[in-house]
Structure formats: structure tokens, C-alpha cells
Amino acid sequence: MKRLALLLSLFGLSFSAMTAAKTPPVKTESIVLGGGCFWCTDAAYKLLSGVTRVTCGYAGGTERNPTYEDICAHTTGHAEVVKVEFDPKVVMLGAVIDYFWSIHNPTQVGGQGHDMGPQYRSIILYADAAQKAAAEKSRAEAAKVFRDPITTEIVPLAVFWPAEEYHQDYFAKNPDAGYCQFVIAPKVKKLKDHLSAGK
What we know:
Elements: H1 2-10, H2 15-22, E1 29-35, H3 38-45, E2 51-59, H4 68-72, E3 79-86, H5 93-100, E4 111-112, E5 115-116, E6 122-126, H6 129-142, E7 153-156, E8 161-162, H7 170-173, H8 178-197
Parallel strand pairs: 6-7
Antiparallel strand pairs: 1-3, 1-6, 2-3, 2-8, 4-5
Helix pairs in contact: 3-8, 5-6
């Protein structure tokens, strides 16, 4: 072992770097979901075990390279969404979608809470037939729980457009902002309590 370490050092390498290089990277999957303001959805999914990355963005519309101002003008058809990347060895696709129903009101029409407008609609954008089937199955099960009809769209994903950098990880970066304190923080606390109780 010492001889190997010495040989590696001659080439500017370390044993730990070599062994780390042999570790295969985690193969993640992703799905795009919209459940109101993407700041809330982003914060909610970062609580779920197995989620490796969440990116805020826009999808479901027709305009290329949309900006936040475009979305707010209601001219693009896009919704505020998040791309949820997850390790399927830790959390399955079905569980990622099932969690979706608990983090917003999928029966509301025209927005989410006090955030009104088509960009805040409930939407699942599937990348393939397996995701479509999983979404439809999950929606059917969720429909048994809600008193009102679920309005969530399940549509094919064309393009996911990442949002501007200042939208990424917004809650963590701006915990003292009014919207974060009065809207996101209570939701995050409720979800944390719910997830803890389920363990």
C-alpha cells in the first residue's frame, strides 16, 4: 500500500483520488413538475430523501428562451416548474410523484393559493411513456383523497427552460423575505413534520 502511494505521488496523484475515481457516479432520473410558485416547489422537494438536485424553470408553453417577465405577462403558455433529479435507488419515481399531491392544492383552478395566473397551474410534464403511466396512476390514487376534482395537467415535456439564477434555491438564499417567511416557511415546517412522522 505504501509503495502504491509512493508511485502515485510521483505522478501527482493520491491513493484516495484513485479509489474515488473508480466509484461510479450516481445514475439519477428526473421529472418536471409545477405546483404553484416554483420557489415553494423547490423548497418542498429539497426535503425529500433521494432528491439530488432541484432546478427552477419554465415549461408547458411555446415561447423559446422565456424570461420571468415573459411568464408574468401570460404570453408564453409556460408554467413555473421544477426539474426534480433523484436517485431511483433511494426514492422511486412513483414516490416522487405521490409527494407532489401533498405540497400544493391540485384541485385549485387558475393558480395556487394567492398566486393567481396560468403560470401557477398544477402540471406534470412527462418525458416518456413510463413517466406518463406513473403520473396517471398517482393522480388516480390521489383523486380518491381529495373532495374536489384534481385539475392537474399531465402533458408531454417538450423543453425545460431553466429560470434565471436568482430564482434558484430562493428560499435558502432569502429566508427573511416576506414571501419566504409567510408562505414558504410554514409549508416547509408542515412538510418536515409530516416527513418526520412517516419515518
